[in-house]
Write a structure and sequence with these properties.
Elements lengths: L1 E6 L2 E6 L2 E6 L2 H24 L8 H4 L1 E5 L5 E5 L4 H6 L1 E3 L16 E5 L14 H22 L1
Antiparallel strand pairs: 1-2, 2-3, 4-5, 6-7
Length: 149
């Protein structure tokens, strides 16, 4: 039977009457994890940029990283039109307007968006998924490298 008792900077493991004490610095591990997490999220944002639709560049440049809870970061594209660009569907209200007032809802319609490929040849809807499908292996290797730095 194995017991692991977590005490501040110590893990005490008991296995068949043999005591093993392993000392490690929790703060140093947390610092390394936080550093790796921040660097990796920045890499993901950079790698995903080439898949973000680009007309004026405002959507792509609006991307920023937020802390979304303990050990959780999110990349947010913060424009009024980011949502319908991401889903690749034109949104219109019941009057056919693509621009509506504050608090008004715009449902999706069947019109698929077409993206210019002039500046970002890989521009697509669901750009985070496209980027993940292309770069996941690289991100895993970078996470390992960032954690060991």
């Amino acid at each position: 039977m194995v017991y692991i008792i977590h005490l501040r900077d110590w893990i005490h493991t008991k296995h068949h009457g043999t005591d093993i004490r392993i000392k490690f610095n929790v703060n140093k591990l947390n610092s390394k994890f936080e550093n790796m997490h921040q660097k990796l999220t920045e890499e993901i944002r950079k790698d995903t940029s080439e898949y973000v639709p680009y007309a004026s560049g405002y959507l792509d440049k609006s991307a920023h990283i937020i802390n979304a809870g303990e050990n959780r970061k999110e990349i947010v594209w913060d424009t009024p039109y980011a949502r319908f660009q991401y889903y690749g569907r034109v949104m219109r209200d019941s009057y056919g307007r693509t621009s509506v007032g504050k608090g008004e809802k715009k449902p999706y319609v069947s019109n698929k968006m077409r993206y210019s490929k002039d500046i970002h040849p890989k521009a697509t809807s669901f750009w985070t998924i496209a980027s993940k499908n292309q770069h996941m292996g690289e991100w895993i290797e970078k996470a390992k490298r960032f954690f060991s730095d």
